[in-house]
Amino acid sequence: MKATEQWFSERMQKPFAMARWGHYGRPVLLFPTAGGDPEEAERNRLLEACWDLVEEGRVKIYSCDSTAGRALATGEGTPAYRMWLLNQYHKAVAEEIVPAIYADLGGRQRIVTAGSSIGAFNSVALLCRYPDVFEAAIAMSGTFRLEQWLDWQFSDDLYFASPLHFVPGLQGPQLDTLRQRFVVLASGEGAHESIGESWAMAEALGAKGIPNRVDNWGPEYIHDWPTWWEMLPQYLREVC
Fold first, then answer.
1. 30 near 231, Cβ under 8 Å?
2. At residue 171, what are phi and psi to the nearest 5 degrees?
3. Average pLDDT, whole number, for the chain?
4. Which of 137, 152, 171, 186 lies at a CB distance of 3.0 to 4.6 Å from 123, suitable for a disulfide?
5. Local structure of residue 58 (DSSP, 8 states)
6. The dihedral of CA 31, 37, 97, 226: what is its sign?
7. 143-199 pLDDT, tens per residue?
8. What angle do CA 116, 118, 119 make, to 5 degrees?
9. Could you tell me the CA-to-CA distances from 92 to 18, 74, 174, 213 in Å, in that order?
């Protein structure tokens, strides 16, 4: 039921890995937190919280390295390098992870993205960049403004990777398709949560007519795994 694989990504010039759980069901691509690897969700019992859905055949869960998030969190290289890597990471997901998911499924299916913290950022960014590939995004405790990890610098790479920046300029077929997708932005208000990040993302999406919803889970929910144990299975049942 579980399998892992790894290869070298020419786009990022780094190793890239993916794990998967389940036999069949709606494909869900779960992005790790900033420093995470593909098995982070399993170690931290997030897979356990969703296991009924896996066993029911409701979902098949995939996860990949948080390569760019790790670089942001550790300050790897220059800010320009970290912005380049973030943009390349999204391209690697679309051009390496997605084809691997299709091969595993035996054909194309639209994929649901999900993640918490930086994983929430990636889940929304990938949906908005590739709405023909992805169906919906479940963004939990999202961090959407990344400049704080980039010495407040900016580049075209960050523009094209950050939905807060590129979504306001979207038009044409990409926007038309994205208006048929859905983003849920869930956040608590407890320790280390910042629901204002979710509201900012909702405002950018809503201004372009992209369906979304902010769910406020209240002050008892903090920025940590127990919060996401409750959130993710609820939203998977809603969108899958």
1. no
2. -160, 175
3. 97
4. 137
5. S
6. negative
7. 999 999 999 999 999 999 999 999 999 999 999 999 999 999 999 999 999 999 999
8. 50
9. 12, 20, 19, 28
In angstroms, the CA 167 to CA 109 distance is 24
Decide: 143 and 68 in contact? Cβ < 8 Å: no
If we measure between CA atoms, which residue out of 137, 65, 138 comes closest to residue 97? Answer: 65
- Helix (H) / strand (E) containing 171: none
Instruction: Give the integer Cα–Cα distance in Å for 181 and 78.
Output: 35
Residue corresponding to tokens 């009924």 = 52
Cβ burial 57-67 (10 Å sphere, 16+ → b, else e):
ebbbbbbbbbb
Mean pLDDT in residue range 10-20 = 97
What phi and psi values does residue 112 have, to the nearest 5 degrees? -90, 130
Query: Distance between CA 138 and CA 197 in Å, rounded?
Result: 14
DSSP tag of 32: P
Identify the residue whose tokens are 């999406």.
205
- Using DSSP bridges, classify how beta strands 134-140 and 212-216 pair: parallel, antiparallel or unpaired: unpaired
Integer CA distances (angstroms), 141 to 39, 162, 225, in order: 20, 16, 10
How many whole angstroms separate alpha carbon 193 and alpha carbon 228?
12
Cα 68 to Cα 83: distance, rounded to the nearest angstrom: 8
Q: Which helix (H) or strand (E) holds 55?
A: helix 51-55
Question: What CATH number was assigned to the domain covering residues 2-239?
Answer: 3.40.50.1820
Closest to 205 (Cα-Cα) out of 176, 180, 173, 183: 183
C-beta separation of 237 from 23 below 8 A = no
Alpha carbon distance 168, 190 (integer Å): 30
Element (H, E) at 97: none
Given the structure tokens 């369906």, which residue do they identify? 211
